[in-house]
Amino acid sequence: MPKVRRNRTRLHNQAVGTPHVSERTFAAHENQVQKLADTVETVNSDGLNSSKKEKRKQRHENWLSKLHTAHQELKKNRKKDTSLNMTMFKEVLPNIEADKQNKDQNKLSQENMSKKRVATKKGRKNTALQEIVRFQNILKHPNFRQNPLQTIQQHVANTVETRPTVEEQDS
């Protein structure tokens, strides 16, 4: 069996049998009702009730004024922080220079210590062959054959720079 459908209308249907608010049995008379301050409509400076657009404009203006005052406070705080005292720089400058020198020395020592890695397989093979040839030449050298430890110590002394220790730098 088909469904029964209502004809649609453009307006709401009136509620059946509901009397007006003032005609209800428990309704209070208008002279007995106390109006609250929140429910009172806003009144313009002209004394007329304001429209929705005017209320909206007023709320927007109030919000902008609050926003403006907040921005003014931020600007004041920023202006106060921009003042600099040059004596602070005089106190810190020697420490910065010492740190910079230490970093430069550390960089140089790390660069001397670290060797570049060969990225390709062919390059690694070539360096391995060069090291083999170098090692064979070292073994054939007459000074190495006579006293190998003395020769290695001499080589280390010639190649490694004498660096100041931490104790020497502090004093």
Overview of this structure, please?
It is built from 6 helices and no strands. The mean pLDDT is about 75. It is about 60% helix and about 0% strand. The longest helix is centred in the middle third of the chain and has 30 residues, at about 50-80. It is an all-alpha fold.
Number of contiguous helices: 6
**In what range is the share of β-strand residues?**
under 5%
Rg, Cα atoms, Å: 47 Å
Order of helices and strands: HHHHHH
What is the number of E strands? 0
Poorly predicted ranges: none
What sort of overall outline do the alpha carbons produce when their principal axes are compared? Answer: elongated
Measured as a percent range, the helix fraction is: 55-70%
- Average residue-wise pLDDT: 76
Distance between the termini: 107 Å
Structural class based on helices, strands and sheet pairing: mainly alpha
What is the makeup of the main sheet?
Answer: none
Provide a quick synopsis of the model:
The protein has 171 residues and is an all-alpha fold.
Key phrases:
171 residues, mainly alpha, 6 helices, 58% helix, 0% strand, nucleus, Slx9-like, Ribosome biogenesis protein SLX9
Write the layout of secondary structure elements.
Blueprint: H1 52-81, H2 86-113, H3 121-140, H4 142-146, H5 148-159, H6 166-170
Protein name: Ribosome biogenesis protein SLX9
Family: Belongs to the SLX9 family.
Pfam family, one: SLX9
